[in-house]
Amino acid sequence: MKKILFVFMLALGFASNSHAQTWTYIQDSIDSGCPTGSTCTYDYSVGLIPTTAGTVWVLEVQTSNNVTITGVCSVGGSGCTGFDSGWTLCPGSICHLATSARNVDMAYSLTGPAGTNSIKVQLSGNSGAILGVNFFEFLPPAGATASFDTAGTTSSTTCGGTCAGVGLTISATDVILQSMHANNTPVWNAWSAPYLTLPLGEGLNLNASSGAAPTAIVDSTGDVTNAIAFKSTAGSFNAPPAGPISVVSYKNFDTANTPNCTPTCSIAIPSTGTGHLLYLEAATLTSSFISSVSGGGTWVVPTGANTCRAPLSGGFAISCAYVLSTTPGATSLNITMTGSQSTPMAVWELATTGGSFSFDTQGSATNPASYTPSGVALSPSGSNDAIFQSIFVPGGTSAVSLYPYPRNNGCGIMFFCAQAANALRINTTDGTAPRWTNQQNNATVVTGVAFKTGTGTVVAPPTGLNAVVN
């Protein structure tokens, strides 16, 4: 009987550990449609993804005049005044900062309803020449309720190369958001570890046990930074260990460095490591797809139905290719397309300490006109996956939910500005379809590709994909 009880309790222990406590990133959405003034109605048509149940909301405003937030309503409208129930102004003494470079302020909500897709913010006066509004959303650990912990601001007129963020004294295992203004974080890994660099340039520390100030790579001089931290009823807890997958490098090819494939072109990449995953995404306006790739290992180019090769009416097209185990020292790739044209691309290199990479699953879909089209729902079979989601949205997208990578300087998540985006989530078993923003409310095509890690032998791609192996 004791043995049976011991086994039962052991099983309960494993079950508990398999659902580790963690904060979850939901969205980083920017308003690109509000005119300057004293109010802004921020909704799905300008970049807000409908909210999730039980999350923390943060609304941040930056202006050129010294004004403060005087009201926020969860449903925009002319009759909205003051703060809706649930919305709280972050204490002005630690959240509002006015400098000659930029003025910043924050409000937050801990009880907002799911599915909210319109928010109105009011200011104490005219914004001046700048009115920027950002909305952030985070989910506390399962079963826990969030609360405000602390916040702060800092500024410098002289920092350059790197600038310091805000140091905070936190009282639990928190989620910390750092947002830099009056300067630019130009690279995908601008914020120092353990911070993630979000697509719009902010720094995010999930499961923070320390409020020590991070640093951020910048491309000019000076900064104005504000930060806010939330705790939960989970208190101080041991965050889940870092997963086996990490991002080694990311590089996008657009605007000044777009390769001209006629139909073959060459791109320079950071020198590859050994046994890593390489993932290549391409987008065109002329129904052209990746045909073959060489350099860095054995490439697989999926070409069948329901793969990452996906057309959209009008000639728009996205496609992908990948290497499951890189050869070391490759510094360039040769790509052949099915047609001749300029081809924006994105290249990722991922490493793992959990065995070899292998293909897991993929899919694609065409969405009808929508302001918030869905990505691809996947059913990963691995215990740790890297999942890529891509979209072609004529006119561009400003945000995607759940996926915190990458940061493309000046284009957010888009590797092809105003046209196509590619996002990544690592060390996950969650294949939930993300939501993208689409201010144009037009038809889109989306793809999703997942790779798993394990200690077994690398497996070949599944049959029926009509993959081209190079």
Commentary on this structure:
This protein folds into two domains: 24-232, no CATH class; 245-469, no CATH class. The protein has helices spanning 2-17, 92-95; strands spanning 24-30, 39-43, 56-63, 69-73, 87-89, 97-98, 103-109, 118-123, 131-139, 146-164, 174-181, 196-197, 203-208, 215-232, 245-253, 260-261, 264-268, 277-284, 290-294, 299-301, 310-312, 316-323, 332-337, 341-342, 345-352, 356-367, 385-392, 414-416, 420-428, 444-454, 468-469. The strands form seven sheets. Strands 15, 18, 20, 21, 22, 25 and 31 form a seven-stranded antiparallel beta sheet that branches. Strands 1, 3, 5, 6, 7 and 9 form a six-stranded antiparallel beta sheet that branches. It has a five-stranded antiparallel beta sheet with strand order 10-14-11-13-12. Residues 1-19 and 455-469 have low confidence and may be disordered. The chain is built from two helices and 31 strands.
Q: Look at the helices and sheets and give the structural class.
A: mainly beta
Oligomeric organization of the protein chains:
single chain
Strand content: 35-45%
Distance between the termini: 59 Å
Low-pLDDT segments, ≥5 res:
1-19, 455-469
Q: Give the total of beta strands.
A: 31
* Shape designation: globular
Mean pLDDT: 91
Instruction: Please give the domain count.
Output: 2
Helical segment count: 2
